[in-house]
Amino acid sequence: LSPGAKMGCFTFIKVMMILFNLAIFLSGGTLLGVGIWVKVDGESFLKIFGTLSSSILQVVNVAYLLIVIGAILLVIGFLGCYGAQKESKCLLMMFFSVVLIIFIAEVAAAVVALVFTGLAETLLTGLVTPLLKEKYGADEAFTQIWNVTMTEVHCCGLNNYTDFNNSYFYDRHQGYPRQCCDMQEPCNSTMAAEMAVQGCFKQILEEIRTNAGVAGGVAAGIAALEIAAMAVSMYLYCRLDEK
């Protein structure tokens, strides 16, 4: 390519890099703002998004999650946008490094999720089952979370209905949650065994496997964007030596 064509290509990629990372920066700012709003005024969030959001807020601290994701996107967007605008090799290298770290972390998480599913089930059983026995029916927030989960996912306990044996709920009601008997009451051991409702871990795992194509497509798309971003940042970084 002629020097003019090379310069035109460099300018085009630089502008695309700026616009792309500006979008990331604005998205990060939005998520950060929503996270701060949820943290400061959670009641308004619940009114807007309904009762299910209450359970979600109790399972995952949405405010902190949004704040962390928003902050990461802000940093990435700033480094990419400002680095391209100022043609700063230092900022471009920092952008490349941050995206590379995130990419490696995502790949590692995917590998762990695929390889250690059985280990995850064992760990969850050891951690969650005692909580089910102790808190289900006694702690209102904990009970609501599990009721919503078991109803929406059509599951019972973490593994199956036996998770509620010798539990606070069983001792008080002499039976199992109605979700363990396909919403029929009273739910005794005979009916629960006949219904054989699967545990929530297995059901959620099955849902993930059923939608693996969609999840894989989204993950592949994100990975492709990250690789493209790293490639573009390295292109700009290397081209700066020639200017």
Could you describe the 3D structure shown?
This protein is mainly alpha-helical and 243 residues long. It folds into 2 domains: 3-115 and 216-242, no CATH class; 119-203, Tetraspanin (Cd81 Antigen, Extracellular Domain, Chain: A), CATH 1.10.1450. The chain is 79% helix and 0% strand. The protein is built from 11 helices and no strands. The chain has helices at 3-40, 42-49, 51-59, 62-86, 89-115, 117-135, 140-153, 168-173, 189-195, 200-210, 212-240. α1 packs antiparallel against α4. Mean pLDDT is 81; it is low at 51-60.
Question: What keywords describe this structure?
Answer:
elongated, lysosome, 243 residues, mainly alpha, Tetraspanin, transmembrane, Cd81 Antigen, Extracellular Domain, Chain: A, disulfide bond, 11 helices, transmembrane helix
